[in-house]
Amino acid sequence: MPGTLQNAYDLLYSALGPQAWWPGDSPFEVMVGAILVQNTSWRNVARTIDLLKEAGLLDPSRLYAAPVAELEELLRPVGYFRIKTKRLRNMLRLIVEDFGGSVERLLELDTETLRETLLAVSGVGPETADSIVLYAAHKPSFVVDTYTHRIFARHGWIDYGAGYYEIKDYCESELPRDVPLYNEFHALLVHVGHHWCKRVPRCTECPLQPLLPETGIAEPL
DNA sequence: GACCAGGCACATC
DNA sequence: GATGTGCATGGT
C-alpha cells in the first residue's frame, strides 16, 4: 500500500518530535557505540563511552594501541565484553591499517563501497554497518533493527519471516532517499519499541495505533 | 528470578 | 538456505 510508511513516519514525528540521533559527539564515537550497543541497552553503552573518553582513549590509534586486557575491563559493563573487544579491535584495525588512522578518509567512501568495506569486518553485520553509514557518514542507508521488524510485522506491512534485506528494501523503495528522514524514522521506531511495542505490546498508547489492522495484533515477535 | 536489551558469527542440518 | 546457539552484564 503506497504511502503507508510515510504516513507512519508523519504520525510518529507529529507525536514525538525530533529524536536527536545519534547521541554521540563524533563520527568515531558513533562507530564505537554501534559495536557496543549490539543486543544491549544504550544506557550501559553511554556510560562506557564516557569512561573511554575520560581515559583519553576515544581515538582510533590510541584505542588500538591499548592493551587488550585493559579494553576488556572497560567494556565489561556492556556485556559480551570479550567478543565486543575483538569486534571493536577488528574495526580499529581497518581504520588504522587501511586508512592511516583517519575515520574521515574511511567515511569519505561512496555509500555502497563504505557499506561493503564495513561488512567485511568480522563483527560488523548489516545493522551495525547501516548505522555507521547513516549516523557517522550521514549517507542514505536505512537501518533495520528488531523493533523495525516487530512493528512492521504487527502492522502487516511485512511478513514475520522477512529477512533484513526484505525490510530494508521495502523501506528504501517506499520512502524518498533522504538522510534526515532515514535518521529520524529509525530513531522514532526505536522509541516506539522501547515504550509500546514490547513482546507484550501496549498499542493503545502508541501513535501508530490508528494504523493497526482491524483484525487485531498478530503473534508477537 | 525470569526476562529483556538499538546483533553477529559459527555450527549443523 | 534456514534454523539453533554462544556470547555476558545491568536494569525492570
Short summary:
By secondary structure, the protein is mostly helical. It has helices spanning 4-16, 27-36, 42-54, 60-65, 68-75, 81-98, 103-107, 111-119, 126-135, 146-154, 164-174, 179-195.
State the domain count: 2
Helix fraction, binned, reads: 55-70%
DSSP summary, beta strand count: 0
SSE series? HHHHHHHHHHHH
Helical region count? Answer: 12
- Roughly what fraction of the amino acids lie in strands? under 5%
CATH superfamily label of the largest domain: Hypothetical protein, domain 2
Which fold name corresponds to the CATH topology of the largest domain? Answer: Endonuclease III, domain 1
Low-confidence stretches: none
Instruction: Give the rounded overall mean pLDDT.
Output: 95
Name the overall outline.
Answer: globular
Determine the N-to-C terminus distance. Answer: 22 Å
Structural class category: mainly alpha
- In CATH, the architecture of the largest domain is Orthogonal Bundle
Q: Sheet with the most strands?
A: none
